[in-house]
Amino acid sequence: MSTQKLILLQEVTGLGSSGDTVEVKGGYARNYLLPRGLAIKATRGAEKQVESLRRARAAREVRSLEEAQAVAGRLTGLTVRVPARTGQGGRLFGRITTADVINAVTAAGGPELDRRRVELPSSIKTTGQHTVTVRVHPEVSTELTIEVVPG
């Protein structure tokens, strides 16, 4: 199998952050990363863009570990209710998305979050309490309990 050297444009879970140079199998690059705009082929010209990507990533990230821990502390003590349209037996029409979670956190007085940092366990399609992982910093992640309520 052939491998390709790519530069990530966005964070890819399990692979790296934006600006990282990675080597992946050809099929993964050709069928997933390149068509979705998550990476570009590593060329001499693209290597020059890596530095600007790293600077942009540093500006977006929470600057220090202490700030990340403070944001994680704010999220831990937060009660988040996500209203959703429900049918018989507490089943949802559709599912809860990361955008729904971020809107509910903001409405509950929580910090602004990036949707790429919120990881849903699986499709949330029922009412009740669910646990969501939020990666605030590469070294800091926290569990957030959301309650899906009829609404």
What does it look like?
The protein is α+β, with helices and mostly antiparallel strands and 151 residues long. It contains 4 helices and 9 strands. A 4-stranded mixed beta sheet has the order 4-9-8-6. The radius of gyration is 18 Å and the shape is globular.
In short:
This protein has 151 residues and is an alpha+beta fold. It contains four helices and nine strands; from the N terminus they run E-E-H-E-H-H-E-E-H-E-E-E-E.
What features would you highlight for this structure?
151 residues; alpha+beta; four-stranded mixed sheet; three-stranded antiparallel sheet; 4 helices; 34% strand
Runs with pLDDT <50, length 5+? none
Strand order of the largest sheet: 4-9-8-6
Strand fraction band?
Answer: 25-35%
Question: Considering DSSP H and I runs of 4 or more, what fraction of the residues is helical?
Answer: 25-40%
* Number of strand segments: 9
- The secondary structure category is alpha+beta
Helix and strand run: EEHEHHEEHEEEE
Mean pLDDT over all positions: 86
Shape: globular
Determine the N-to-C terminus distance: 51 Å
Number of helices: 4
Largest sheet: 4 strands, mixed
* Rounded Rg: 18 Å
